[in-house]
């Protein structure tokens, strides 16, 4: 017997093939806010935390940290008398990623209900949606949905006569990639420069305005209503993997049909590429791919049968990241592509720590020389050395380690292309073709 889409696609079943915003009346008719009503009548804050912990839900923003554990750490590290805040990280700035955009534009009430449930679990008094500044449609739709939710009594004081008080506000950012890092986001929300903070103390103990704060991603929070309504066993059954649930995943780049789909964790990258993205463009062969945005390591075409989940991709040297894969065609030059990627990361560095501030522009300069066939012997080795200097544990936050991940993997997979940029210069000098501008 074929299962209903509501039983297999907890995040997107309400869309029902029609990509128009689901407003409060339609959302309510499709089980909307039933999880909140159930919670306020029969469940405690600890019940919700326990449900989310047992469900195995991991953060969908890229890091993949267990959500329930994150909540437990916040509750344990703060007293009930202290104000607590919940922040939804909607600053979707990762190139090649557009999954949260879909949820905010078409299913704003699902996100709002997820935030209210999470706030109840954490006993937070106030929440903020920190939205990427140029998501204009999402901003408009979220504001409308917030008004509808307040009018129906789902936000504000004494929600549904339960004694629970919580309000939620939308804040648009100024457009900085670094705001994806939770402490930089908190600084920006406070009106400060978007630099990461020293840790410890962690936001769970000292966050927004010095109060305990939890920061969760849009997709993460959008999963909470279905977990509360349908339970742990059901949520785990959705996956083909050790990791629980479904995930918004997709392909962009040199594919016939770029897009994002809700799929079970554990599906292979090949299945997504061939069955959903309809394969590579005509006349184009897959050269390499990134599993979750430009900040993840490149993988070879022979690794397409890897399961798209947190554990499997980590085993082969990459990360699931945001789950939105990028396909690179065989005609694309890797040095040129890496120059584009590293230029982005260099510009988006906050400049707080020396390795990132100085190292990324240095990498860009070397890649520019290589791309112009002006590379020097030793440039590749220098790039590898810089990758080590900017690796995990060497910089203030994860920005630089994310930036060098695609570079280091590309050198390993396509070293000959980097060497050719040096060889081409040698050939020009040998043939008296080397021009010096006076």
Automatic annotation (TrEMBL):
<protein>
    <recommendedName>
        <fullName>NADH-quinone oxidoreductase subunit F</fullName>
        <ecNumber>7.1.1.-</ecNumber>
    </recommendedName>
</protein>
<keyword id="KW-1278">Translocase</keyword>
<keyword id="KW-0285">Flavoprotein</keyword>
<dbReference type="InterPro" id="IPR037225">
    <property type="entry name" value="Nuo51_FMN-bd_sf"/>
</dbReference>
<comment type="function">
    <text>NDH-1 shuttles electrons from NADH, via FMN and iron-sulfur (Fe-S) centers, to quinones in the respiratory chain.</text>
</comment>
<keyword id="KW-0288">FMN</keyword>
<keyword id="KW-0520">NAD</keyword>
<dbReference type="GO" id="GO:0046872">
    <property type="term" value="F:metal ion binding"/>
</dbReference>
<keyword id="KW-0411">Iron-sulfur</keyword>
<dbReference type="InterPro" id="IPR037207">
    <property type="entry name" value="Nuop51_4Fe4S-bd_sf"/>
</dbReference>
<keyword id="KW-0874">Quinone</keyword>
<keyword id="KW-0408">Iron</keyword>
<dbReference type="InterPro" id="IPR019575">
    <property type="entry name" value="Nuop51_4Fe4S-bd"/>
</dbReference>
<keyword id="KW-0479">Metal-binding</keyword>
<dbReference type="InterPro" id="IPR001949">
    <property type="entry name" value="NADH-UbQ_OxRdtase_51kDa_CS"/>
</dbReference>
<dbReference type="InterPro" id="IPR011537">
    <property type="entry name" value="NADH-UbQ_OxRdtase_suF"/>
</dbReference>
<dbReference type="InterPro" id="IPR011538">
    <property type="entry name" value="Nuo51_FMN-bd"/>
</dbReference>
<keyword id="KW-0004">4Fe-4S</keyword>
<feature type="domain" description="NADH-ubiquinone oxidoreductase 51kDa subunit iron-sulphur binding">
    <location>
        <begin position="335"/>
        <end position="380"/>
    </location>
</feature>
<dbReference type="GO" id="GO:0051287">
    <property type="term" value="F:NAD binding"/>
</dbReference>
<dbReference type="GO" id="GO:0051539">
    <property type="term" value="F:4 iron, 4 sulfur cluster binding"/>
</dbReference>
<dbReference type="GO" id="GO:0008137">
    <property type="term" value="F:NADH dehydrogenase (ubiquinone) activity"/>
</dbReference>
<dbReference type="GO" id="GO:0010181">
    <property type="term" value="F:FMN binding"/>
</dbReference>
<dbReference type="GO" id="GO:0048038">
    <property type="term" value="F:quinone binding"/>
</dbReference>
<dbReference type="Pfam" id="PF10589">
    <property type="entry name" value="NADH_4Fe-4S"/>
</dbReference>
<comment type="similarity">
    <text>Belongs to the complex I 51 kDa subunit family.</text>
</comment>
<dbReference type="Pfam" id="PF01512">
    <property type="entry name" value="Complex1_51K"/>
</dbReference>
């Amino acid at each position: 017997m074929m299962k209903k889409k509501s039983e297999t696609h907890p995040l997107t079943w309400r869309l029902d093939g029609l990509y128009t915003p689901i407003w409060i009346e339609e959302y309510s008719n499709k089980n909307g806010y039933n999880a909140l009503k159930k919670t306020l009548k029969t469940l405690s804050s600890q019940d919700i935390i326990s449900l989310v912990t047992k469900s195995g839900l991991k953060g969908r923003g890229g890091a993949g940290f267990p959500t329930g554990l994150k909540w437990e750490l916040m509750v344990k590290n703060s007293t009930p008398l202290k104000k607590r805040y919940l922040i939804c990280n909607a600053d979707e700035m990762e190139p090649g990623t557009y999954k949260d955009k879909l949820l905010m534009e078409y299913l704003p009430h699902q996100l709002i209900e997820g935030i209210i449930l999470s706030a109840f679990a954490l006993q937070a008094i106030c929440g903020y949606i920190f939205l990427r500044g140029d998501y204009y449609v999402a901003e408009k739709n979220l504001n409308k949905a917030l008004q509808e939710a307040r009018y129906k009594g789902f936000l504000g004081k004494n929600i549904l006569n339960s004694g629970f008080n919580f309000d939620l506000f939308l804040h648009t950012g100024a457009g900085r990639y670094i705001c994806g890092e939770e402490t930089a986001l908190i600084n920006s929300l406070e009106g400060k420069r978007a630099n990461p903070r020293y840790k410890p103390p962690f936001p769970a103990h000292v966050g927004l305005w010095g109060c305990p704060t939890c920061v969760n991603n849009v997709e993460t929070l959008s999963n909470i209503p279905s977990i509360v309504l349908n339970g742990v066993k059901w949520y785990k059954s959705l996956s083909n993997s050790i990791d629980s649930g479904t995930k918004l995943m997709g392909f962009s780049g040199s594919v016939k049909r770029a897009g994002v789909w809700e799929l079970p964790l554990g599906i292979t990258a090949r299945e997504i590429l061939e069955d959903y993205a309809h394969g590579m463009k005509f006349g184009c062969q897959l050269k390499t791919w990134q599993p979750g945005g430009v900040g993840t390591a490149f993988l070879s075409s022979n690794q397409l049968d890897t399961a798209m989940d947190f554990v499997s991709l980590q085993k082969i040297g990459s990360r699931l990241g945001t789950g939105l894969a990028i396909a690179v065609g065989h005609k694309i030059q890797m040095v040129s592509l890496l120059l584009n990627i590293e230029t982005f990361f260099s510009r988006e560095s906050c400049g707080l720590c020396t390795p990132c501030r100085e190292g990324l522009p240095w990498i860009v300069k070397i890649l520019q020389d290589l791309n112009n066939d002006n590379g020097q012997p030793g440039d590749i080795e220098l790039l590898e050395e810089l990758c080590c200097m900017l690796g995990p544990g060497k910089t203030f936050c994860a920005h630089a380690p994310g930036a060098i991940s695609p570079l280091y993997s590309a050198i390993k997979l396509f070293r000959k292309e980097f060497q050719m940029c040096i060889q081409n210069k040698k050939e020009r000098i040998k043939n008296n073709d080397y021009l010096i501008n006076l």
